[in-house]
Amino acid sequence: MKGTLKIFFILFSTIVYGQTDQVTTIKKQDSRLDIATRTIELTYKVPKNYTRSPDRIILKHPEDPLELIRGVGNLLTSVWTHKDGECILFIECPAVLPRSGINKLEEEIPSSTFNRLRLSLRIGNPFKNTTPEQMEELDKIIKYWPQEKAKKVFNAQHVIIYPSNDPKAIYKEKYILRQSFCIIKWANHINVSFLLTNKGYKHMNKYVKDVQRSFWFND
User: Fold this and answer.
1) Is the peptide bond between 98 and the residue preceding it cis, with omega within 30 degrees of 0?
2) pTM (two decimals)
3) What domain of life is recorded for the organism (predicted)?
4) How far apart, in whole angstroms, are the C-alpha atoms of residue 82 and residue 130?
5) Each residue of 161-185: pLDDT tens digit?
6) What is the pLDDT of residues 194-210, one digit of tens each?
7) Cβ neighbours of residue 72 under 8 Å, at least 6 residues apart?
8) Which domain holds residue 192?
9) Where are the alpha helices (H) located in the chain, listed in sequence order?
10) Residue 71 neighbours by CB distance under 10 Å
11) Number of domains observed in the structure of the chain
């Protein structure tokens, strides 16, 4: 079982992190999120009602359910917790680029994005190319923002929203993974996942608005 889990984490990391790191200037006080967002030319601010983790968080089985790790990955760049105690945001931003840097001519959603989504939603083998049939199944579940809205809210090219309906995808025995935003520009992304208590789920729109004011891609 341990060997299987190790392979799972290695393969997931290959999908999410399997490119070459770009050299970026790092200051001693920088967090992983600072480095990651600067690398993909993204500006962020933590909303006033949230506290953030000092650095990255690694989810580990059996402390954390496999259903949760499958939904968000095991390497979290940052975790933001609302002061009301009803909402936690998992932030995943890989900050990896080809050696040539950002290709600002790239406008399409990369195929690796759909592989990650299939892993989260348990559709087919995520370590093989997405088939047309799997893409049809994905399109029934995920929601694409109009590109005009993606640009207006995040200065992004694409925003994909996808749900989680697995009650076993739970964190600290009370926060259930409900929904994730994948925000994309120039084939780079930041992923924001909403984990909510039952009480917090009733006010999810409030937390979504917080996220909409928190991230902005540079031109």
Assistant:
1) no
2) 0.86
3) Bacteria
4) 36
5) 999 979 999 999 999 999 999 999 9
6) 999 999 999 999 999 99
7) 59, 90, 92, 120, 177, 180, 191, 193
8) 2-217
9) 2-17, 32-39, 66-72, 111-121, 132-139, 147-154, 198-201, 204-212
10) 22
11) 1
